[in-house]
User: Fold this.
Amino acid sequence: MKLYHQARTRSARVRWLLAELGVPYDLETVDVLSGAGRRPDYLKIHPHGFVPALEDDGTVLIESAAICMYLVDRYGGGRFAPAPGTIERGKYYEWMVYVPATADPETETIMFHTVFLPESHRLPQLVERSKKRWRTKIEPRYAAAVEHSTFILGDTFTAADVMVASSLAWAQMAGVLGNDPRIARYFAKLSERPGFRDAFAL
Assistant:
């Protein structure tokens, strides 16, 4: 198994989950921000030149949420996800999709238009719009979800926590993570896990 990875990208959540699963793998860094993702050899692996990409059993998977769900199903042994066919499994899918579809675009917009793009290409109005959406829509939803539970789905750690805590890590990097005590408690607990610390080390 091989993970194509770059720090401060969505591939960090895959790296974290692999650590939780205890699955051995090779790590190959692809500096997509400097253009390495556009190399013809890498475009054969990921058609858009992004990370993560995961090679397993001769097949390549892309999209961080899909990779995480696959890894849990194949290597989790019943851990890190509720039982199939239950409403809890439905809520698990909801969070696995919500993070990359709704939350990640806001923090990515902030990071790109404050850090990654040249100053001449940055659009402050996009940053302010994403900050507002994060503050008024996304962070309150996270806070409500963990108000009465240790983890996002209750008292058991799942891959959904990998997704949500990764989202909070990027919010912290983007300077938009608020001071809600519910989120602070939840994020502090998740960020203590060795797999998180390794995956998000720069």
